[in-house]
Design a protein that fits this description.
Order of helices and strands of chain A: EHEHEHHEEEHEHHEEEEEEEEEE
Largest sheet of chain A: 6 strands, antiparallel, barrel
CATH superfamily of the largest domain in chain B: Type I PLP-dependent aspartate aminotransferase-like (Major domain)
Number of strands of chain B: 12
Largest interface: A-B, 20 and 19 residues
CATH topology of the largest domain in chain A: Rossmann fold
Structural class of chain A: alpha/beta
Strand order of the largest sheet of chain B: 2-8-7-6-5-3-4
Shape of chain B: globular
Number of strands of chain A: 17
Strand content of chain A: 25-35%
CATH class of the largest domain in chain B: Alpha Beta
Number of domains of chain B: 2
Oligomer: heterodimer
CATH architecture of the largest domain in chain B: 3-Layer(aba) Sandwich
Number of domains of chain A: 3
Number of helices of chain B: 15
Helix content of chain B: 40-55%
Distance between the termini of chain A: 50 Å
Shape of chain A: globular
Distance between the termini of chain B: 40 Å
Order of helices and strands of chain B: EHHHEHEHEHEHEHEEHHHEEHEHHEH
Strand order of the largest sheet of chain A: 12-15-14-13-16-17
Strand content of chain B: 5-15%
Largest sheet of chain B: 7 strands, mixed
Radius of gyration of chain A: 22 Å
Structural class of chain B: alpha/beta
CATH class of the largest domain in chain A: Alpha Beta
Chain lengths: 379, 389
Amino acid sequence: MSNSTTIAVAMSGGVDSSTVAAMLAHETDTSGAQLNTVVGLTLQLWDQTRLAGKHGIPEAPKAGRCCSLDDVYDARRVAEHIGIPYYVVNQEDRFEKDVVRPFVDEYLAGRTPIPCSLCNNHLKFDQLLQTARSIGASRIATGHYAVNEFDAERGRWILKRPADLAKDQTYFLFGLTQDQLSRTLFPLGHLTKPEVREVARRSGLALAEKPDSQEICFISGGDYKQFIAAYLEEQGEQAPESAGELVASNGEVLGRHEGIANFTVGQRKGLGVSSPSPLYVLNIDPASHRVTVGADAELAMRTLRARDLNWISIPELTASMRVRAKIRHRHEPAWATLEPAEMPGEVIATFDEPQRAVTPGQSAVFYDGDEVVGGGWIV
Amino acid sequence: MRVYMDSNATTPLLPEVVQAMCPYWTEHFGNASSIHLHGQQAHAAVDRARETMARFFNCHAAEVVFNSGGTEGDNTAIFGLLHPGDHFITTSIEHSAILEAAKRLVHRGVETTFVAPQPSGLIDPTDILRAIRPETRLISVMLANNETGVRQPVEEIGKIAADTGIFFHIDAVQGAGKVEFDVRRFGCHLLSISAHKMHGPKGIGAMFVRRGTPVEPLLVGGSHERKQRAGTENVPGIVGLAKAAELAMHSLEDGTIDRLAGLRTRLETELLKLPGTGLNGAGAKGEYIPRVANTTNIWFDQLEGEALVIALDLKGVSVSGGSACHSGATEPSHVLMAMGVDKNRARASLRFSLLKTATDADIDYVLQVVPEAVEHLRALSPVAAGTLG
């Protein structure tokens, strides 16, 4: 026992992380001795009942929500089934400070945030590693679909796209530091989702057929506008006045809108103006509150600027580099040339083909083949 | 090695208790309200248990009501006595079975005053006296605090209640089996206990209801327990509770409590020698105040209590960061906060509550494991902050 490695598995109560726990707990050496000491941890991040019933948010959260009691129950049952200790660690305060509050503020500022990346950077990897170490676990394992490997030649930890490209989660993991990558295991990186479900079935996990979760975990019902309204009310805050003009790309004023937080770049529905051809949000100006709309073709942008970069396969971007850039979760990475921008700490990516809806607040992640070069936040 | 030091959360059944309960699951399974032989057997067992509990409380058998445990007793006192327009006095360090019930009373037009403790964790009876209004109908104070073990001056509060003609309930869940009971000396009208905190089974408890106290039942239905608590009697549970009470009375006289206090003092003294630690539930100059013999609550600076609890569990020591009824909560202990303990210290406080069966070897093991874990956690805090580099 004393020679075995202690690994903390981040368990959400879903199939993926449950399977990881089962896989690691069942790993044996050649003599058949258990290889790892596995401890299950669930981060309790958000109280799903907190805003329930307010501003149209459903009274009872759906099953399969992160941090719902049902999911904690599922995770606990899995831990019991595979015979590992299991703990729920409360990180609600930190989640609110580092994920929820920035999420709300980004929308209020006219941007479109990605809470999952913030959560990975601040909670899943930073806080979880800290908790893991404090209980004597040198490594953590998660159910993310990604591959990380040490490349001795470059002396760097490399993050790569997984075997199952449909489940690729590297887009949300671009913020991982070298230290975090060196301490993290992604045991599902070489498996496809159907294979994972098969492992779950073979391990006798009752939740092998549990559906995947899709929406943002803390937004029950999936409507972020309801969430922002209910959250601000709970905090006793007024949404800042951000009503303004709705204008065409030629500057013609088409009407007025009630607030910039209701818009995201590329949005078509709910603009409140009629037009013979479909109109899309092209730009949101947080200073003047002006929302510019135009035709689909006008959404295409040739360049993007990104800040707060984290580099993975390279120490720093010093010269221009050919990459494929991914600008939102469901975006097919597009060829671009990446260069340091004039502003220190920022980069500019110039696409070979203009890309639709480059959205401030989302992240841009740069790939070299299967490898994640690095990424940052779109300005 | 596995050491259990969380007996304020619950305790194991003593073998004698299991043995006493055994016949009542299968052989003497009757309903105590039935006329036939089976019913009579069950009824006799409940009667005997009631007499034992009367000795335990120092009251008449007719003043003992069996129920499901501490939460039910606490709720019954509050919902059974208070009516719209009444005023209720309790303390801010009570169990949530009292605090949440009091919150619910707001809708019924009952106002509650929550008396804060001294920094030592002790309730000052004059603070209770000051809170009394003409419409005050009930005072409820715990006998011993579940987190700090501080023993409250219920006798003095009982005198205040008697002088002012106010009903007095004692939540005695954490005192049962640890301090001597005498409801006449306590001066209370109602007192609640739970079996599982004193080596009895879970889901069974009892309440002392002084004759003539107009407490309305929480559950209505059959005429069980002299119409004070409807529902078929939990006969095995009642038998188990009485056996546990009998053994508890014995342990108060045979030197067990002194031995336990000795073990607790050794544990506490050694842990407090670690740098950056302190005792929750002590006087301003660190002097001891009355506490139950098995409990000590210690803060450890520069670490997270939650991580320490997990680390100790993985090393074979079961302790708690506070009340088990609150685990998983974000907020630090309401008891420690009410005592004015710094928020970070409240979050980094551990409760060690010893079983009566605790041994020197248990203390030795805990004294070996805790300092290591504390040192490890403290060494990590600055490192972890630097991982974003």
